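Pinned message: reference record for Cytochrome b-c1 complex subunit 8
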Amino acid sequence: MRLSSILNGAHFGNLAKVHGIVTYKLSPFEQRAFAGAISNGVPNMVRRFRSNIFIVAPPFIVGYLIYDLTERKHTALLRKNPADYENDQ
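Predicted structure (tokens):
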């Protein structure tokens, strides 16, 4: 049995009849998708950045400092000690 025979030609959004509920839709062509994007969006983005910077940044700074210290120590350990080779000819 095919699925189309069960649905009787109804599309997925129209499978049930809902009574007593009024819905309103606005056409996508009538909406303003970027209404207030500059006047409201940019200040909101700055506010959200300022509120989260002290929560997010410290772990990254500590992680970078640990990484940098480890890399410096690794390169220092790879070097040969010149005092071991003073008497070589």
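Pinned by admin. Summary line: The two ends are 92 Å apart (CA to CA).
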